[in-house]
Write a structure and sequence with these properties.
The complex is a heterodimer of chains A (about 110) and B (about 120).
Chain A: E1 4-6, E2 9-12, E3 17-24, E4 36-40, E5 47-51, E6 55-56, E7 64-69, E8 72-78, E9 87-95, E10 98-101, E11 105-109
Parallel strand pairs in A: 2-11
Antiparallel strand pairs in A: 1-3, 3-8, 4-5, 4-9, 5-6, 7-8, 9-10, 9-11
Chain B: E1 3-7, E2 10-12, E3 18-25, E4 34-39, E5 45-51, E6 58-60, E7 68-73, E8 78-83, E9 92-101, E10 105-110, E11 114-118
Parallel strand pairs in B: 2-11
Antiparallel strand pairs in B: 1-3, 3-8, 4-5, 4-9, 5-6, 7-8, 9-10, 9-11
The chains are: A mainly beta (about 110), B mainly beta (about 120).
Chain lengths: ~110, ~120
């Protein structure tokens, strides 16, 4: 079975830029997978960041952006802040109204 | 303002049953598809099930088919998850969430979750 892949962890310095990716164990991610991204801090419900590949959800700072890079969906944080230290999840549409989350990326800002 | 409030979680023995509820407010509930997403302790998010706005179609992750059933009562602005034949691996925080379509489908709003623990 095809699974959605994400980097388990990533580190970025304050003010730096980081790109997290969301791929498939088999095949390429496209806009037809409707990639969206969610941020979750410990003990909190997820927060919607990006939908439809590159649209920011209401209230999300413009330092967060989404794209397709090569064969993966990508979430880029430009000018990372300490508040951005969180877990980040992508979800993809796998067809037939079935969805799958990636395993999540734990982002450290230090 | 959109509010999604889950309830019904608790401790249940393996093989037991539980019914989760989600009370929705702040939007026309009967116009939106709804979903359950779960998160096992210390683990990532897992999409569990989705139900269309009118209840006409339901979709499930393979691991819960035949055991968990999603339903809704649009007159009561409520979403449900009937959980039968529960297993230890069903232990998780269960989130109620709302889908939105804007160019494509995405989960826009989340509840705070209700915890289900399956243990003897």
């Amino acid at each position: 079975q095809t699974v959605v892949t994400q980097e388990p962890s990533f580190s970025v310095s304050p003010g730096g830029t980081v790109t997290l990716t969301c791929g498939l164990s088999s095949g390429s991610v496209s806009t037809s997978h409707y990639p969206s991204w969610y941020q979750q801090t410990p003990g909190q419900a997820p927060r919607t960041l990006i939908y439809s590949t590159n649209s920011r959800s209401s209230g999300v700072p413009d330092r967060f952006s989404g794209s397709i890079l090569g064969n993966k969906a990508a979430l880029t944080i430009t000018g990372a802040q300490t508040d951005d230290e969180s877990d980040y999840y992508c979800i993809l549409h796998m067809g037939s109204a079935i969805w799958m989350f990636g395993g999540g990326t734990k982002l450290t800002v230090l | 303002e959109v509010h999604l409030v889950e309830s019904g979680g608790g401790l249940v023995q393996p093989g037991g049953s539980l019914r989760l509820s989600c009370a929705a407010s702040g939007f026309p509930f009967n116009s939106y598809s709804m979903t359950w997403v779960r998160q096992a302790p210390g683990k990532g998010l897992e999409w569990v099930a989705t139900i269309k706005h009118d209840g006409s179609e339901k979709y499930y992750v393979d691991s819960v088919k035949g055991r968990l059933t999603i339903s809704r009562d649009n007159a009561k602005n409520s979403l449900y998850l009937q959980m039968n034949s529960l297993r230890a691996e069903d232990t998780a925080l269960y989130y109620c969430a709302r889908w939105t379509f804007s160019g494509s489908w995405y989960i826009e709003y989340w509840g705070q979750g209700t915890l289900v623990t399956v243990s003897s």
